[in-house]
Every structure is written in C-alpha cells, then in structure tokens.
Specification:
The complex is a heterotrimer of chains A (290), B (238) and C (352).
Chain A: H1 2-35, H2 42-58, H3 63-84, H4 93-115, E1 128-131, E2 134-137, H5 138-160, H6 162-172, H7 174-179, H8 184-206, H9 218-231, H10 235-257, H11 259-276, H12 280-286
Antiparallel strand pairs in A: 1-2
Chain B: E1 2-13, E2 16-27, E3 31-35, H1 42-50, E4 57-62, E5 65-66, H2 72-78, E6 80-83, H3 95-103, H4 109-122, H5 138-151, E7 156-160, H6 168-183, E8 187-191, H7 195-201, E9 204-209, E10 212-217, H8 219-224, H9 226-232
Parallel strand pairs in B: 3-8, 3-9, 6-7, 7-8
Antiparallel strand pairs in B: 1-2, 1-4, 4-5, 9-10
Chain C: H1 2-5, H2 17-37, H3 40-65, H4 73-91, H5 97-121, H6 127-146, E1 154-155, E2 158-159, E3 166-167, E4 173-174, E5 181-182, H7 187-209, H8 211-221, H9 223-227, H10 233-259, E6 261-262, H11 269-282, H12 287-326, H13 331-337, H14 341-351
Antiparallel strand pairs in C: 1-2, 3-6, 4-5
Chain lengths: 290, 238, 352
Amino acid sequence: MDFLSGLFSFLYQTGDAFAFLVLSACGLAVIFGMMGIINLAHGEFILCGAYVSASAARMGLPLPLAILLGALIAGLVGMLIERAIIRHLYNRPLDSIVVTWGISMIATQGTLIILGSTMPGTGTPFGSFAVGAYSYSIYRLVLMAAAVATLAVLWLIFTRTRFGILARATIQVPHIAEALGVNTPMIYSLTFGLGAALAGLAGGLYAPTMTLVPTMGAAFVVEAFVTVVVGGADIFLGTAPAAAILAVVKAGLTSWQGQLAGQIGLLVAVIIVIRILPRGLTGFILRERA
Amino acid sequence: MAILETRKLDKWFGGLHVTDNVDFALDRGEVHCLIGPNGAGKSTFFKLVLGEHTPSGGTILYDGEDITKAKPFERVRRGISVKFQVPGIFQALRVRQNLQIALQHHLEGAGLDEEIDRLLEFLKLKDAEKQLAGSLSHGQKQWLEIGMAIALKPKLLLLDEPTAGMTPDETHATGEMVKALNAEGVSVLAVEHDMAFVRQIAQKVTVLHFGKVFAQGTIDEIVADERVAAIYLGEVDA
Amino acid sequence: MISTLRLLEGPQTLGKGPGFWSAFALVLILACIYPMFADGYDVGNNVYFFNWTFMALGLSLIWGYGGALSFGQTAFFGVAGYAYGVLTINLGDAYGLTFFSLIAAVGISALFAAVLGYFLFFGRISGVFLGIVTLSVTLVLERFMSQTAGPEWAIGSARLNGFNGMGGMPSLTIPWPGGDIVLYPDVTLYYLTLALLVIAYLALRMLVNSRMGNVLVAIRENPQRAEMLGYDIRRYQLGAFVIGSGLAGLSGVLYTAWGNYITPSSMGMSAAALPVVWVAVGGRSDLTTTLFGTLLVLAGFQYLTIYGSQYALVMMGFLLVVTILLAPSGIFITVGSLFSKGLRRRLARERV
C-alpha cells in the first residue's frame, strides 16, 4: 500500500512537472523552432496572460474563458511587438536575443510601476483528493490534461489547417512562399503571435496556483528554455519528449534533494545536451544534415 | 604521382548515401574539374576533402599522407587551400587587411607589405586596397578570396564554383588566373557548372552522379559521352 | 619595444594621431586632478563606476571584437568576488596579503573561464547556444550560492551566507611602515583603480591591434574562412574569452574590496543584463566607445535610481531596444559619425 502510494506520488510529480514544462515551453518552441528567434521576453507574455486572465476571472468571467482571453491578449501583444520590433532582426539572431531582453525589462518594470508589486488573484479551484497519506490538488490534474490537449491542438493546427501548412512552408522557404502569393509578413506575425498566445495560455492556466507578481515570468522562463534547447526545433519530435525526460529528472532530483537541486539539474542538463546533441532531441531523432 | 587521393570515400546523411565509395585521384600539377547534376554530391565531396564533414568510411590521402582524421586548419597548414562558392571574405575589414590576415601567419614587416602589394597587383585590386571588402563587386570579391586562398602558397587549391555569378569577361579572367597559378605548380580541383570555364582550364574532368563517379576523361571525351548528357537530362538513374 | 607601442593605434581601434592622444592626455590629467575638487563621497562613487569598466571592456573584447555573445561576465564577477572574500577573510589583510588575494581571485575566475571556454569553443558551441550556456552557468551559480545559508557552508572561516551575501571582508590594504594604508572608497583607492583602468585600456588597445586581434576580428567576420586560412580558431576564441572573463573577475574583486560585500544577486538575471546594455549602447566593437558608453550609462542609471528609482530599469530596457533597432553599432559611434568622417567610414563598415 505504501509502495503504491509512493509510486502514485512520483507519477503525480512527474506528470505535474511534464505539464509545467510543456505548457511553458511550447510557446517558446514555436518561436524558436520555426523562426530561430530566442525570445527572452517569453516570461512577460506569460505574465500578460496571467494578469489578464486573473483580472477577468475576478470580474466575473468563468475561468476557462478568462484563461482564453489571457491567451488572446498575449497573442495580440505578441503580434504588435513582432511587427514593430522583431521584424527588423530576422537576420541578426544575437541582436534579437538582446532586444527581447530589453523588452522583458521594460515589461517587468512597467508592470511593477503601473500595477504595483502584486495583484490579487483567484484561488486554486476544485480542491484536493487524497491518496495514502498525502493530498493532491485536482487542478493540477486539469493542468496535465491541458498540456496534452495543447499538444494535440497544436498538432492539428500545424498539419490540418491552412495556416499551419503555410507557416511551415513560409518559414522553410520564404521566397518560394512569397512567390506563390503567400502574405509572408502576416505569417511571421501570426506565428510569433501564436507563440505569445501559448505563453499567455500557460500564464492563465497557472495564475490560480501562484502569487501574481511582475517577476512571475522568471519562474517559467529558464525551464522553458531548457526544454526547448534539449528538445530541438520540432515541437512534437523534440519539445514533448524533452519535457517528458526532463520531468523525470526534475521530479527525481526534487524529491531527492529539494527544489533547488531540481532547477540546477535542469540547467546542467541543458549545458550537457548542447555539448552532446547540438540540435537537441529533434536532431538526434532525425539525424539531420550538419 | 597523386597529390590528392580518396579511397572508397563514403558518406551517409541519415538514410541518404551522399558519397558512394568514391575512388578519386588528382595528379600533381593537374587542373581537374568536378561536374555533375545538382544533388550529385559535389559539394559534399569537397567538404569531405576539406574536413568540414567526417566521412562514414574510406580514406583521404594528401601527398601520400592519410589526412582522414585531420582537422580543417591542419589540412590548410599542410598546403590545401579553398575558395568557397559564396565569397568567404571578411566583409567589414579593408581589402588590404583581408590579405594581411591571410599572410601574417608566415610573413611580417616589410616582407609582408611587399607580398600584399604583389598579390593586389595579381588580383587587379591595387586601386581598391583601402576599400571595405564588402563593398567590392561580386567578381572582385571572388578574386579577393582566391587571393587569400593562394596567399598561403598552397600545393592544392580547391575551388567551389569559382565563377558563380560572374560576367563572361570576369569568368575568362578567372580562367586565366587559374592557368597562371597552375603554371607555377599549383594543383587545382574545381567544382563547376560553367562549361566554357571548364573547357578553358580543365585537363581532366570527373562526372559525379548520385554520389558515385560516373565518368572520367578529358573535356572532349566527356562532352562526347552520350550517357553524361543523359544524366543531365534526368534519363539515367544510379 | 617601439613596434609594440605602435600597436596602440591600428585598424581595430578608433583614435589615432596627435589629436587623439592629446585629448587622451587631457582626459587623464583631468581625471588625476579631479579628487582635489570633489568631495570624498563623489570620489568614492567614481571608484564604484570605474570598478565596472573592466567587465565592460572584457565583454567588448569577447563580443565586440570576437563576435561571441557571452552572458557569463557576471558569473566570473561573482566567482572572483567570492574568492576574494574567502581568501581575505581567511588570510587577513597584513603583509599586503590582500593584493595576493586580489591576484589569486582573478586567477581563479580566469581558470574557471579557461575550463568553461574549453568546453564551449573546443565543443564548437557558438551563436545563440553560447549565450544560452553562459546564461545557464551564471544562473546555476546564482541559485547555488543563494542556498548556501547554513553554517556548514563555509570555506575556512568564511561563511558563504546564502542569498544574504558575504560581508566583512577587508578592503585592499597596502603594507606601510608605521601603519598599513587601508584603501577605503577614497582618494588612494581612486588612484589605484584609475591606474589599473589606464593600464587595462592601453594593453587592450595593443592586444586588439596585434596579430591576435586581427585573427579575432576575422573570426568574428567569417569563422569558416579564418579556419581555412590555417588558424586554429578555437584557441583564439578561448584566449579572448579567458582575458575578457578575467577582466570581469577583476571588476568583481574591486567591487567586493570597495564595498566589503558580495551577494548572489550580482549573478542574477538583472545583473547579467547590465553589461550587455552598457556595451551595446556605447559601441561594443571599439574599446574607447565601450569605455565612455559604460561610464555614461552607469552615471545615468545611478541618477535614475536616485531620482526615479522605478524607471531606471525601464529606461535601460528602452535604451537597449532603441540602440539595437536604430543604432546597432552603438549610440556613441552612430552619433559620433554625424561629426566625424572617420566614424562614418567605421559605421559603413558595420553595415556591410
């Protein structure tokens, strides 16, 4: 009985870590994987989604709608930023990192100035259940389902919709896409917006479980990066399996040595993977041309 | 006596057999052109010789020595030099400084300056020496790169589509440059699409197709070979 | 000797001829007589600014000249700062041992840079991945040091103290018959730091105009071509990285000796961003513009922190975004090019 409850605990922790990594990383993976841009403002799109959805929920909107609203607003802001700033830096990858870092500083501090050092949130819904000696949050199970659902929806978008196919084509061979009449600037905007919206979704989903402070994005960013870099360019061949593996690593290290060990473990993992598998899991699976 | 030799050189990319057991030899003092339809594996073969790709099998011999495991800069130091397809020059530095960086390895002081001047004359770039390399015309950039490649006094010069994007006049001038270098004893291996250029410089021609050596001979023999024409038209498979 | 000095001028540095060097001499003289007119607090404050310039010059070498965007400067800053703290707390400040500790601490951070650099450059890691790895290393160090709070986390008699930071280490102390001279943030420390800055600046000028400097900018422009000219580019990248990171370490030691304090937040995300801002805004591909850009941005940042504290970081963010978009070579170079033909040519170079 003890063994089973211990096993359940480990599975729960791993699933929880997996959901966190997938949801925080998929927005970054879309932008990095498809456009090669490292978006250091990723945490701030999460912040946007969190704040918008929490405010909307407090104003009476049902939580699922509030979360979607948060994602939508984050996506729109993303498209604006892409149009105004990122667009000019596609052939300057190092500069795009630096610029998004600047945007991140502006957003975090700006939020602090305008909205104060904290914002009231909603509580975690659904309560808890018990297995063995421990109690577990039901909402976290919802988040695990949300992570899987997000991956499924993304798969449908990229393989079944016109936008998805055009986006993949545009990003791989922009001139040809343009010659075929595709509105390539629009595709770039929409793709970046999708990445930002996914970040906003993560923010909205996790807002009920966290304190809302302007620096909350930082809790997601590093782990999102690690997952994207370990995974490589493809969301389905890379990010998802990377999240699974890293979830096990993180859950294992956390239960062994505490949260900090888990975080450090992930950072060490990214350093090692960059050295051994420069294109991440995607490259390993596809054995891409050098 | 071969200055460059590959034995059963093999390269796989995932499931793609890009270089298929290639046995190749370039004689000392020879100008040899490598041609073939797109995707035949010419660039990959080149990169294998340079050391940018590691072979899946086989050996590469330079001047009798096995260089299969040597790093690119080691191969360069032994006397192999390369000119890339896309001009590989230092765009934001001046023309003179570009050559200086190529030469400073083994020259300094007044000797260095004299050699730079000599090269500038040879490349017809004397008037442009203070210009930024990036502001040169496309043909001039190609020549500057050839200049940097030969500054090292190589024994073997590899040229990857040296006349890509050049006007017919520039192409002809490049051909004359190559012949002048060959007269000084430099062996040349060139990947090329421009048949007029091939005819101008090549003593021997190898045709690659699907990663394999398809035909070899003088330019006249190759042009007369019906099978070669067929592969360009897509009528023959591996 | 003369030929080495000739390297003070060259293709990789702005400023040549009697005009430039007279201006340089003038600025130096002004800097030397400054303490006679300023009060103690301002002098100490200027030392604080000078302390950061080494890190900025180091990043200019690694990024501006070498083309490698390293987010690791604050990691080496922190390592050296903590090393100085541990060494001086254990060894004390008599007999000039603080200077030994200074050199040893910089040496430790340089050694750490050599190991990390070997891993990076001999592993052919470059571009954005270099940035990610160096940023990860910096954050690992920050997180690790933040949780060293208990008494078991001590080296000798120096407790690491977790996120509260290590304090109480002695300042740099010059042994003197009749009473050691302790270098508090005051006039003597000012002259020492100024001297170090001048030496570093001139030495770097000579380095970047030397053959090594030529190869470094070649690697920045076209690493493949540099390799195909027979250079083992990994060694040059490693060399620049160790020197640049060692300079960051020097900043760390001087900062710790100046304030008798070092915390893990000096290696956090916000701290790691600042050197990038200074160097990008000033003009990273030239030592002189980096130096003045850094001092100006630091002064501006401090002013904003005092008079409108919340806006300081927002302004830094804005500055960074605007610079990268509108003046990617750095604001100094871009504005300066409006006045100088030489700078206009330089700017054209960067646009190519």
